Structure formats: C-alpha cells, structure tokens
Amino acid sequence: MSSAEPFALTDRDFERVRRLIHDYAGISLGEQKRSMVYNRLVRRLRAHGGVAFERYLDLVQDAGSGEREAFVNALTTNLTAFFREPHHFELLARRARGARERGAGTMRIWSSACSTGEEAWSIAMVMRETGHPADILATDIDSDVLAAAHEGVYPAERAAGLAPERLHRHFLRGVGGKEGFVRIRAELRPLVRFAQFNLQGAEWPAPGRFDAIFCRNVVIYFEREAQRRLAGRLAAALAPGGLLLVGHAESFPSANPAFRPCGRTAYELTGC
What is the mean pLDDT of residues 229-257? Predict the structure, then answer.
C-alpha cells in the first residue's frame, strides 16, 4: 500500500460497491467509474476513522449504522443549473399560459431528480411568471442535496446567467456574511414541496396525478429493463395529455406506446 493510495479498493470491494448501489438506487456503474468510486468513498472511510473498504461496506449493509444513506449520497451524481435545457421551460410556460386561458385548475408538476434544487426553483419561477397556480413536488434520493435545495441559497455566480429582471424578481442578494450568495424569495417557497424519493423504490405517487414530470439525466445510470419499467411508472403518474421531459441524451419514453414526441426531448401522454 503506497502513501499516495492509503486505502486499497480491491476488485472484490469494487464489485461489492457496484452491487450495493444497484440494489439501493438502481444505478449501474461501469468499470470506468472505479476512480470516481474511490475518490468519493474514501472520504467516508476517513469519516469512520480510516477503516478499510471491506469494513466500510459492512457498515453500509448494517441497517443500524445509518451509513447506507451517506453511501448513496456519495455516489449520486448531482449536476444541475437554473433553466438547464431552456426549451423545456419554454414548453412548460406555453402549457401554463394555455391552462390559465382555459381557466384550468392548479398544475401539478414533479421534479423527480431535483438535486440541489435549481430545476424545481426554475419551474416555480416559470409558474409564478405565467400567473397560473402550481403545486410542485421536488424529490431526490440524496438527502444532502435535498437539504440544500430546501434552503434555496446559492453562490451568486450560479444565477449569473439569468436575465436581470428574473434575477431581481425571484432572488434576494446576500449581505454581510452572506455576501456573494443569493436566496430564493419567499414568494416562491409555497409552490414547492421537497421529499426524499427513490425512483427504483416500491412506493410511488398516486396514478394520474401530474400535469408535467421532469425526469432528466437520470436513466442514463439505469439498465435497459429498469428504464422500460420507469417509463411505464411515469406514464401511470401523469394525467392525460401530461408532459414528460427528459435529458438531452435520453430517449427511453419513445419505446413506450403511451408517449408521443412533442418537442426536443419532450413527450406527451397519449393514453394508448
């Protein structure tokens, strides 16, 4: 064992990591993710006094240790931004304006992998701007990023790309010890509810509940059968004519006859 690598990640340990994260979160890790696994989990080894990987993974499997959640959090990729893939938010705004013109009721929207909250708060901004009432559910498997999402405080540079009027309307600038940060304004907070949720878990929201679901840049980590099953569950969770918005490299809903394309990486529930 060299001083440069104080913790040895054996082939057996790595295969065990891959099996556990698949069991707990449905994520499939390839061999190329070995360095990522090492770099992220070694922090947890140090947090437990420098235990070896084998002993650490025993802790993960011990339900009484409380380490399982930290393990999943460490291996979950959380890349996000305000108004990432803006065409999705433009489509949502058109739907919301149309609903308002028809006098339709509250739109129910699900940000199913909300990470640190930028996606959910972007949805809330769109709905506030259109003036149509909304009930937004924001979920993630990672409890750490959910806490950050709920707090709604971000380094100012994370919002620097927003139009000045949008920035002024939806954010407060930090002062004193919070200088260099922005906070989501109180007016947006009633629109969004945060909850921990596993897309591969047994419990799901009630059928036909949502008018739009954002499920972006998630299934690239799932095996094909898991993607197929998820598409079916998302279809069941959408109201007739509801929108499903996926990541720029994802097309898994196209194999499900319940969906038809209605824009770039956007699908509409047809009810087939």
Answer: 93
